[in-house]
Every structure is written in structure tokens, then in C-alpha cells.
Automatic annotation (TrEMBL):
It comes from the Bacteria. GO terms for molecular function: acid-thiol ligase activity. SUPFAM superfamilies: Acetyl-CoA synthetase-like (SSF56801). Gene3D superfamilies: 3.30.300.30, N-terminal domain of ligase-like. Residues 466-541 form the AMP-binding enzyme C-terminal domain. It comes from Paractinoplanes ferrugineus. The keyword Ribosomal protein does not apply. Keywords: Ligase. This is Long-chain-fatty-acid--CoA ligase.
Length: 554
């Protein structure tokens, strides 16, 4: 039943069954951090630091600068930025005005960006100057990443040497005609007057585009209540977090929902120091560890694997990392084991989606975490495993069905897409996740696969993840994606695209035979294709749709 919460018995001491519903906008969390910990380092960007007092002042000036540009409550403002201090300032400045942040990947092609900009209709875009020419909006504000660097690095960039020229080319670009400089606008502005109204808790805070792995991206509408609730849920999920005493690493991109919540809004909620890195680079991360050791590290499995290998080779001490969270893809047991041995801390797997701010489920941050499971629902979060053909009917425990979620973090719908909204939001506040899951008797959940990526061959259901897990056990397989391709005989046939392990070669026939020995006949791949790499999203998730499209186009 929907109100049956067997998972509560697995909550560690100090984790409440429910959170207090947010009553204030997300901006109140920053104001509280500024008031309580003004001298604490809020941001560290490659060694350049900003205190919470300085961050609050910059946000107030940036809000006034944007107000002078004509930004008002309800307006959409596009952010096209990598992780940098200006990104954090712009995010909170837009919110302070009651306007709506729209996050964009700065590595998008002009065509990808054009679709989203046209969809939400922003008239102002705050862009990394290197990509500002791709933003077709009336008002462009360019951000110079080098302006946020430590003084010694800024001076080094001016040297007439090849390394300096290369770094300048990587970090800077010319602004389009008519564009303004972010740094100049903020420096010239006075702090915004307190009389300028701020946002309400139920106002829209963020448009986050999603759906790129399965179709045309859609703008998920998230309110201040949604985002503040998820930050609070994430905070209480880890009772050991200390206000004003943690160092969060922002290696995940802030333009992605996972990075925005765990690396920014949850960090600000407890006045943590945020170590910002413009991109994931093992060398940059380990250099930062020596300068400002992390205590909380959100990431994805490939990050943990690469960091663990490099840390062992360099002898880098990671023992300050007490808590780590993995998402976006399954967490291999070996990855968790290696990381926990290196850090002495805990690495748990969680689950979420953009439409839920994004986190809804996580393993307990305790010895009770369970390998192979995405965990148990967050506080104030309810789940059901429903019959996909009749979502009003719950499946028996242990049987697969579609995962439905309800909680204060669930979005209000897709931007200007009522039909798509009605397809996923059900009466009672439930959202259809599109994921097939099973629930154990004690409430732990495991994802079987995506509904849309289910392969139906000869009338039988094949879950790609199950086949991939088996193939990954082969020593010659480094990575794999399993998809269904059209078949006149069976409707769809199971095809595996394999990236060989380092130094290995894959014998197709031997791998097919190996799979048939470990899987039911209808689940075993009929074909194996070899690839140098698999297409991935910006946070490393394999894009099966693109794999399938590449195979069909060939």
C-alpha cells in the first residue's frame, strides 16, 4: 500500500521519517549561511577563495545588475556556464529577483542550445564568454573564467609563453558585439535594495531540461519548495554533517540536477565550503585535495574508479572523505569497496530524476547500506511498485513493476507541455518514473531497467541492465551497452556493443557462447559489436538510445 513504509526500520539513528515542509524560498538558505558563518570560505575555485559574506555581497550586487538589465520576477534567465564562482553568484542572483534560472550545458552545440532557448524564451543569457556566440538572445552577458582565478594564475596567463597561450585559449573567448561583461556589471552595481520583493516558496525557481536520453529535451519546472525540500532531505539523510564544518567537492556539473542539489544547494544549506572545479580532471581533483581536503564527495562510478587509481599511484591521502554518494548509473561493488578502503568513509548509491529535484531514494549512510540496491526512500517520500498496464494496482513484493514516487521534491510539470505532464503526473501527487523496479520485504529497491529501453524479443521481456551485468563479468569486457534492434523473426533482437578492457581483445563468438551459458536463451545477445567508446551524457551515463541509433544508421 502507498502508506506502508517498511523502509523506515532501516533509517539510521538521527534520520527522521519526514522533514518539515519548507516555508521559505531557496534564497533564505544562503542568507542564513551568510548570517551564521560570514567568514567561512564558501567557494574555492582552483585556489581562489570567497567567504560567505563576500558571496552574499556579490549575489546582492549581481541581482541589482540584472534588475537594471530589466530582469523581473517570472522572467527566464539562461545560465550557460561551467562550474565557477560566477555560476553560483548568477544562480542565486536570478532567484533573488524572483526570476527563473534555466541551466544549460556550455558544451551543447548551437542547434541543441537553440531549441531550448526558443522553448523557454529567455531574453537574457549569462554565458561563458567562450560559447557566448551560440546564445541567440537579445541580451548576452559574458563571463570571463580567468577573472575568478587566483592572482598568481591570472598573472601567469599573461606571459607570452606557449602554455599560457594554450590556457588562455581554453578558458577565454571573444564576446559577441553588443554583449556585456559580467565582471563589469557586478562591480559597478550597488547591492539590491531590501525593498525589492524576493520569491515565494511556491514560485518557480528552475527550469531543468531533461529527456535527452530518450527524445527531445523537456523543461522540468521546479519550485523553490521542491529544491529546498530536496536540499533538506539530503541534509538529514547524513546526520553526521556539521553546519559550518564540511567541505563539499563540486566535480559534478552544476548545470545538471544531481550536481546542483548535492554540490550546491545542500552545501549552502549547511554553510559548507564548496570546492568548484570547471570540469572533472583527475589531476585537478587531487591537487585540490592537497590544498583543501574534502569531507563530502558526490560523483559517478567512473570518477571514483579513476580517482582511486590515481590516488594510489600518487600516494594522495583521501582519508578526510567521510561521505560519498554515487548516482546516474549502477555502482559496481568493486568500485565501492576500493573507494571505501582508500577513504575509510562510506560510499552509497542513490537514485533520482530531474523531475524530482532530483533525489528520491538512497542507501542508508551507515553499515546498513546494501550493495546492488538503490536504497530506500528519502524522508517524506513515498513509493509504489505499480502494474505498468494498470498503475492503480500495486505489484506483489519482489515482482517488477513501474516505480512511482510521491514527495515534496516532485515537480509541477513540463514547461508548456500539458500532454507530456499529464502522461507522467498521476492523481495524488504520484510521478511515473519510467523505471522498472522491485521492492524487497524490508523496503529496499532495485532498478531492473528503463520501461522505454525494455527489449521485447519473441514475446519475452529482456532488461538490458541484466544482460550488461552478466557481460561485464567477462574479463575482456571493459564496458558494454545492450539494445534491441528490429528483427523480422522475433520483433527485436538483443545486441551488445562492447568496449574491450584495456589491453584486451574481444572474441565475438566466444563472448556469445559465454553469455548463452549464463543467461536464458532469449536474453543472450544475438550479435556483438565492438566499439572504442560508448556515447555518454555529461555525467557519464551511457546513452543507449544513441547506441541504438548508431547501429541502425550503419
Amino acid at each position: 500500500m502507498a502508506d506502508d513504509r517498511p523502509w523506515l526500520a532501516a533509517y539510521p539513528e538521527g534520520v527522521p521519517a519526514d522533514i518539515a515542509e519548507p516555508t521559505r524560498a531557496l534564497t533564505a538558505n544562503l542568507a542564513q549561511a551568510v548570517a551564521r558563518f560570514p567568514e567561512r570560505i564558501a567557494l574555492d575555485f582552483l585556489g581562489a577563495t570567497t567567504t560567505y559574506a563576500e558571496l552574499g555581497d556579490q549575489v546582492a550586487r549581481a541581482a541589482e545588475a540584472l534588475r537594471r538589465l530589466g530582469v523581473r520576477a517570472g522572467d527566464r534567465v539562461a545560465l550557460i556556464l561551467p562550474n565557477c564562482p560566477q555560476h553560483v553568484v548568477a544562480f542565486y542572483a536570478v532567484l533573488r529577483l524572483g526570476a527563473i534560472v534555466v541551466e544549460h550545458n556550455p558544451l551543447y552545440t548551437p542547434a541543441e542550445l537553440a531549441h531550448q532557448l526558443a522553448d523557454h524564451g529567455a531574453t537574457v543569457a549569462i554565458c561563458w564568454d567562450k560559447v557566448a556566440g551560440s546564445a541567440n538572445v537579445p541580451t548576452i552577458v559574458g563571463v570571463d573564467l580567468t577573472a575568478a582565478l587566483p592572482l598568481v594564475k591570472r598573472l601567469a596567463l599573461k606571459l607570452p609563453l606557449p602554455p599560457a597561450r594554450k590556457m588562455r585559449a581554453e578558458m577565454r573567448g571573444p564576446l559577441p558585439d553588443g554583449a556585456s561583461s559580467w565582471e563589469e556589471l557586478v562591480a559597478e552595481a550597488t547591492p539590491i535594495a531590501g525593498s525589492v520583493p524576493g520569491p515565494g516558496v511556491d514560485d518557480t525557481a528552475l527550469l531543468q531540461y531533461t529527456g535527452g536520453t530518450s527524445g527531445t529535451p523537456k523543461g522540468a519546472v521546479l519550485t523553490h519548495r521542491n529544491l529546498a525540500a530536496n536540499a533538506e532531505q539530503s541534509r538529514v539523510w547524513v546526520p553526521g554533517l556539521r553546519a559550518g564544518g564540511e567541505t563539499f567537492y563540486a566535480v559534478l556539473p552544476l548545470f545538471h540536477a544531481y550536481g546542483l542539489t548535492l554540490c550546491l544547494t545542500t552545501a549552502v544549506q549547511i554553510a559548507a565550503t564548496i570546492v568548484l572545479l570547471p570540469r572533472f580532471d583527475v589531476g585537478l581533483v587531487l591537487d585540490a585535495v592537497k590544498r583543501r581536503p574534502p569531507t563530502f564527495f558526490p560523483g559517478v562510478p567512473p570518477m571514483y574508479d579513476r580517482l582511486a587509481t590515481a590516488a594510489r599511484e600518487r600516494g594522495t591521502d583521501l582519508s578526510t572523505v567521510r561521505y560519498s554518494i554515487s548516482g546516474a548509473m549502477p555502482l559496481p561493488p568493486k568500485t565501492a569497496e576500493t573507494w571505501e578502503a582508500l577513504t575509510g568513509g562510506l560510499l552509497i548509491e542513490g537514485y533520482g530524476m530531474t523531475e524530482t529535484s532530483p533525489i528520491t531514494i538512497g542507501n542508508p549512510m551507515s553499515a546498513g547500506r546494501r550493495t546492488g540496491s538503490i536504497g530506500i526512500p528519502y524522508p517524506s517520500t513515498h513509493v509504489r511498485i505499480a502494474d505498468r498496464a494498470d498503475v492503480d494496482r500495486d505489484m506483489p513484493r519482489g515482482e517488477p513493476g513501474e516505480l512511482l514516487v510521491r514527495g515534496p521534491q516532485v515537480f509541477s510539470g513540463y514547461w508548456n507541455l500539458p500532454a507530456e505532464t499529464d502522461a507522467v503526473l498521476l492523481p495524488g501527487g504520484w510521478i511515473r518514473t519510467g523505471d522498472v523496479a522491485v521492492m524487497s520485504d524490508d523496503g529496499f529497491l532495485s532498478i531492473v531497467d528503463r520501461v522505454k529501453e525494455l527489449i521485447i524479443t519473441g514475446g519475452f521481456n529482456v532488461y538490458p541492465s541484466e544482460v550488461e551485468d552478466v557481460l561485464r563479468e567477462h574479463p575482456d569486457v571493459g564496458d558494454v551497452a545492450v539494445v534491441g534492434l528490429p528483427s523480422d523473426r522475433t520483433g527485436e533482437e538483443v545486441v551488445a556493443v562492447v568496449v574491450p578492457a584495456e589491453g584486451a581483445s574481444v572474441d565475438r563468438d566466444a563472448l556469445l557462447k559465454w553469455a548463452r551459458e549464463r543467461l536464458s536463451g532469449y536474453k543472450a545477445p544475438r550479435r556483438v559489436e565492438i566499439a572504442d567508446e560508448l556515447p555518454r551524457s555529461q555525467i557519464g551515463k551511457v546513452l543507449r538510445r544513441q547506441v541504438r541509433d548508431q547501429l541502425t544508421s550503419n
